[in-house]
Structure formats: structure tokens, C-alpha cells
Amino acid sequence: MEKLFKSLPWWVKWVAVPVIALVVFGSLIASVISVVVGLLFKVIVFLILVGALVLVVKRFTGGGGSSGSGRDW
């Protein structure tokens, strides 16, 4: 296999083979990227919602720790 690739011109190794790989595996690559971006979006939304919940709870409970010993879980 190595001898075969060494005998080919540079444009076959660096242009034609990657283009063929993108044509064959393009939909797989796109779906993997879509899943990763969707998961990242959901993680960011989760963090924003948890942060907002913490801020709302602190605001309505008086800033936290002001109602006693500070061990009010």
C-alpha cells in the first residue's frame, strides 16, 4: 500500500483521496458535527438556566446566609 501511494502524483494523494473520502463519508461527518454542536448548545442552555435559578433563589431568600447559622440546606 505504501509503494502504491509513493508512486502516485501529489495531487492524487492530497486532493483526490480527501475529496473521495468527503463524498463517501460526508453525511457521517456532518451528522457527527451536528450531534456535537447540539450537545454543546444543550450544555450551554443548561448552565444558563442553573445560573439563573441560583440568582433567583438567592434574590428571594435574602442573599443566602442571612437567616441564621448559614447551614440552611
Task: Briefly characterize the structure.
Helix content is 78%, strand content 0%. The longest helix has 51 residues.
Describe the structure.
With 73 residues, the chain is an all-alpha fold. The chain contains 2 helices and no strands. The chain has helices spanning 2-7, 10-60. It is rod-shaped, with a radius of gyration of 27 Å.
Secondary structure elements and pairings:
Blueprint: H1 2-7, H2 10-60
Protein traits:
73 residues, mainly alpha, 2 helices
Would you report the number of β strands?
Answer: 0
- Report the structural category: mainly alpha
Oligomer: single chain
List the helices and strands in order.
Answer: HH
